[in-house]
Design goal:
about 300 residues, Rossmann fold, 2 domains, seven-stranded mixed β-sheet, globular
């Protein structure tokens, strides 16, 4: 019996060890699968290219503490340097066989798009698709939209570079916010009731043409966020949005993904691009965010591998 019990004990120990190793492998596998892996790199070798906007008046203001809540920087436009940067990058873009373009709905991204592609050899065949998921990560005044109706008037199918708003319009139909405030759909820092109250207030001011008060209330929303030390759109939400956008691009271009001789260009924003360069899962730790992410300069182009090998 003693020998039998010894064997039983050994057998149980082995089972425990196997179970433990198996569990650790399972945990490790789970972590690996769910850990966002960055597929960004410098250069132009991949199918998908991301380009940050040119410099804006907001970017050029070195007083960051004040600029992030300055109502005059809502949906900030390109400054002279930003226009020149967008024109300069033509030399690179004109050498690329671009077949499709996605662009964020902000005025500065559409300015950058127009200046950078207005002399592209394939310009007449390009239609830039306005995609809400490519919007900037929402945090400060520069991440709000000032007047989407004016933006649509200035950039459309009759512009130097044709702009298609239909995907954006279809998105807006599915949410509970007016097109000018579609980005409220990304807010997850406030309770629903509080967000609803904020939305109704700014929408009423916007609809009634009370521009200055409208801008002031929006700036106060940013102030409230900074006072609470909580982003309007969490990094977790922004990261999910980034990968939702990548999934859309993959599906929308599934027949040409492996053909890297033609390119897809996305004109977007610094923080939105940073989200994709972080190789670690997100928590709301801004210092980790800055340490882990690559910060693209204005009009810098990064390429993204749409066909990773797992």
């Amino acid at each position: 019996m003693d020998i039998i019990n010894i064997f039983r004990f050994i057998f149980l120990v082995i089972l425990c060890i196997v179970s433990y190793v198996s569990k650790q492998t399972e945990i490790q596998r789970f972590i690996d699968i769910n850990k966002p892996i960055t597929y960004f790199s410098k250069g132009l070798k991949e199918k998908l290219l991301f380009m940050r906007t040119g410099e804006t008046y907001y970017n050029a203001d070195t007083n960051l503490k004040e600029s992030v809540i300055n109502k005059e920087y809502i949906d900030s436009r390109l400054n002279k340097n930003g226009v020149n940067q967008s024109i300069t990058v033509q030399q690179t873009l004109n050498s690329l066989p671009i077949e499709k373009v996605y662009v964020s709905p902000y005025y500065r991204t559409l300015q950058t798009l127009t200046y950078s592609l207005e002399n592209h050899p394939n310009k007449d065949n390009l239609i830039a698709i306005v995609h809400p998921m490519a919007s900037e990560v929402i945090n400060c005044v520069n991440d709000y939209i000032l007047d989407i109706k004016q933006t649509k008037k200035d950039f459309n199918m009759n512009s130097k570079v044709k702009v298609d708003w239909s995907l954006f319009d279809n998105y807006v139909k599915k949410i509970k916010y007016d097109e000018n405030f579609y980005y409220f759909d990304f807010f997850d820092a406030f309770e629903k009731s509080e967000k609803k109250e904020m939305y109704e207030k700014v929408k009423d001011l916007y609809d009634n043409g009370n521009v200055e008060k409208y801008k002031k209330v929006l700036a106060n929303v940013a102030k409230l966020s900074f006072h609470r030390e909580k982003r309007l759109e969490s990094l977790v939400h922004a990261q999910k949005r980034f990968y939702n956008f990548i999934d859309y691009v993959k599906k929308d271009n599934k027949n040409t993904l492996t053909n890297k001789s033609s390119k897809i260009l996305v004109v977007s924003h610094a923080f939105f691009m940073k989200i994709g360069t972080d190789s670690s899962p997100y928590e709301e730790n801004m210092q980790d965010f800055y340490n882990n992410c690559y910060d693209p300069s204005n009009c810098e182009i990064l390429c993204y591998d749409l066909t990773p090998k797992y």
